[in-house]
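Exercise 7. Predict the joint structure of the components listed below.
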Amino acid sequence: EIVLTQSPGTLSLSPGERATLSCRASQSVSSSYLAWYQQKPGQAPRLLIYGASSRATGIPDRFSGSGSGTDFTLTISRLEPEDFAVYYCQQYGSSSGFTFGPGTKVDIK
Amino acid sequence: QITLKESGPTLVKPTQTLTLTCTFSGFSLSTSGVGVGWIRQPPGKALEWLALIYWNDDKRYSPSLKSRLTITKDTSKNQVVLTMTNMDPVDTATYYCAHRQDDYDILTGYYRYYFDYWGQGTLVTVSS
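Solution:
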């Protein structure tokens, strides 16, 4: 079973700053199987990035995804007030199904 | 417009069986490539995938919970039902259903796997 590790656990930044979130897999993952979600308190997760680097419909271009193999990154180029939330990465394995990372909380510094 | 909504009991007793229904609109589970999955989230914790059913009735389960889960679909009612047996307080969580659509990546030769539409979730508490 592939395990996802996200770092840092919490990222304290100010609006306008750049956020770099890491997702590391315990073994190599196809980029097609890697997605990122944003979740705000009391809300369902929202798909941001799929296929490691493709933005979902309606997602602003300040959000970008990159990476391959075991290391993937979600970058928010300039944080807006509405971007402070928890971010999860997700991967898929043919035998284990979907796995989510523990999440990174981006909060206001 | 795709929407999904979960329904079911808010409180179940330990050892009981939980039955949750996902009612959706904007797509059909008889369309090739479509799937509906269940994901849960204990309070303050991360997301955990539970099960997924496809248009062709192919079913996938979390290996760690497979013995307790059953997922079925009623295409005519646009519903997916998840049952979880032998409920325990650690199963207290918000349960979400979500839509998946086959998405072929011609660059890698793989299908992309993600959930693009989610229900609002329903909180289930397990307590005597």
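Discussion. The mean pLDDT of chain B is 97.
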